[in-house]
Amino acid sequence: MPVLRLVAKKMLGGVILFGAIVASHDTAWASGLPSDFNVRAQTACEAKILNEMEAREVFSGKAYDVLSEVARAYGRPIPHIYLLPDSWNMAYLAASAAVDGRGKIVVGRRAAVLFDRIALKGFLGHEMAHLVRDNAALGCKDYIVRDPEMEADADALAARTLGTQPVKAFLERVLALTEGQNFDAKRRLAMLQ
Ligand SMILES: [Zn+2]
To answer: Measured in angstroms, how far is the CA atom of residue 151 from the centroid of ligand 1?
Structure first.
């Protein structure tokens, strides 16, 4: 099925090249929330985004279990976890941790199926690293393109927290699924050695 394969390849490229942070990311503040942070507006905006994505919160299953394990390793409460139908993507909602201290991670259902537990752990560990680092975001906007340095930092934090193996497994899985075409994954894998 060459067409499906091509689509899969394109979308998987998106897993890491694009789209994992919903919200703008350009401001960081050292302590607490900015005075104009509006929890109610943030909550409403997040609900709207999740609804538009048709993402559903789950309370059990593979992705939930693995995320619980990851959150424990980070010493953090388990973020809300949402499954996204027909997607390979994974995202976290920036600023969502500021709403209730947990944060929200959105997992593509296909990623949850196609990644084995160890690779999924690396994937979620990477997203969790963003969430932990992101004590600040301007709220609920749109996808932003991620900068390579931020990605490498998130990999490094995940590797320190969970061990290198899951992060390697995650990047290797992406490379395998994209038949070695994902240069971002290749580069990050090399940085991890
Ligand atoms: Zn990332």
So the answer is: 5
d(CA 62, CA 68): 10
Q: What's the gap in Å between 116 CA and the centre of ligand 1?
A: 19
160: amino acid identity, one letter: R
pLDDT digits (tens, 9 = 90+) for 124-168: 999 999 888 875 555 565 445 567 788 889 999 999 999 999 999
- Of the candidates 120, 59, 57, the residue with the CA atom closest to the CA atom of residue 88: 120
The DSSP-derived string for 112-166 is HHHS-HHHHHHHHHHHHHHHHH-S----S--EEPPPHHHHHHHHHHHHHHH-HHH
pTM of the predicted model, to two decimals? 0.79
Domain ranges, ordered by start, for the chain = 2-192
The beta strands (E) that lie in the chain are given as: 21-22, 56-57, 80-84, 90-93, 104-108, 143-144
Residue 135 is encoded by which pair of tokens? 């004590």
Question: How many Å apart are CA 50 and CA 80, to the nearest integer?
Answer: 12
Q: How far is the CA of 20 from the centre of ligand 1 (A)?
A: 6
